[in-house]
Write a structure and sequence with these properties.
With 306 residues, the protein is α/β, with parallel strands linked by helices. The protein is built from 10 helices and 8 strands. Helix 1 packs across helix 9 and helix 7 packs across helix 8. The model has no long low-confidence stretch (mean pLDDT 97).
């Protein structure tokens, strides 16, 4: 099944709300849902999906469900355990796409984010190439249809692609991407290798809990507002359309019904070459998700240029 171009992100979708949100999104036409064990809301998403299937609103095979292996499950023996936990929570018997959430393994255990006395992540002594081999086994076991990565830089992807005995190459790399972090080199690299790219935080994550007043606000950018006005669209619709025209899949998160509908209405207009170039010129390599508590980890992905 081909992955839809636009889906619903569920990071920071509060557990009490996400069930209604997913049901609404399915009714609004969404078929791609991006989840993760780390978001701690897979149960509610599973409830919503099951209810819609029961109602006959949608069939399982019409949906494209993505979730992610968390960093504490990187040990070869834990990959299947992590996958099964997500499948059970989502009440599914297979995933359309399963991603390694980060290249960094953390100390195994109940704690999602094990920290040392300096407040830094405690690594596991795992290698993501071994994690990848265990991911490949999930495909052979029929638990997942495809596997991929998230937050990997191009050197880390290259390590997987050149691994002796590679069975399945990553189908997707999910990365933070928006006009302030355009990721041109990484996208070009992935696409040249036949790896699809998904952009998370495509709207610049305006509701992130750690936002500082001095941070740039993408949707308030006057130039983006100007392009939006020309097309009689909203700034959010423009920045989503920008990614779609680069052949990048987008997964905006919203819990507001009106915005969920609005974010989906991006297939009835086209940005000009000049507008695309203008938006690309906004790049300032500004990251929402720096994962700075892991910056000393051997596999921290964001030291590399791309």
């Amino acid at each position: 099944m081909k992955m839809p171009t636009l889906g619903l992100g569920t990071w920071q979708a509060p557990p009490g709300k996400v069930e209604e949100v997913v049901k609404f999104a399915i009714d609004a036409g969404y078929r791609l849902f991006d989840c993760a064990y780390f978001y701690q809301n897979e149960n509610e998403i599973g409830n919503a999906v099951q209810q819609k299937i029961k109602e006959g609103a949608v069939k399982r095979e019409d949906l494209f469900i993505v979730t992610k292996l968390w960093n504490t499950f990187h040990e070869r023996s834990l990959v299947k355990v992590g996958c099964k936990k997500s499948l059970d929570a989502l009440q599914l018997d297979y995933l359309d796409l399963y991603l390694i959430h980060f290249p960094m393994g953390f100390k195994a255990g109940e704690e999602l984010h094990p920290l040392d006395d300096k407040g830094m992540s405690i690594p596991s002594d795992t290698d993501f190439l071994d994690t990848w081999e265990a991911m490949e086994e999930l495909v052979d076991a029929g638990l997942v249809k495809a596997i991929g990565v998230s937050n990997f830089n191009h050197e880390q992807i290259e390590r997987i692609l050149t691994k002796p005995g590679l069975k399945y190459k990553p189908a997707n790399n999910q990365i933070e991407c928006h006009p302030y972090l355009t990721q041109e080199k990484l996208i070009k690299y992935c696409q040249s290798k036949g790896i699809a790219v998904t952009a998370y935080c495509p709207l610049g994550s305006p509701d992130r809990p750690w936002a500082k007043p001095e941070d740039p606000s993408l949707l308030d950018d006057p130039k983006i507002k100007e392009i939006a006005a020309k097309h009689n669209k909203t700034p959010a619709q423009v920045v989503l359309r920008f990614q779609i025209q680069r052949n990048v899949i987008v997964i905006p998160k919203s819990v507001t019904p009106q915005r969920i509908v609005e974010n989906f209405k991006v297939f009835d207009f086209e940005l000009t070459k000049e507008e695309m170039a203008t938006i690309l010129s906004f790049n300032r390599n500004w990251r929402v998700c720096t994962m700075s508590i892991s910056k000393t980890h051997k596999d921290y992905p964001f030291h590399a240029e791309y």
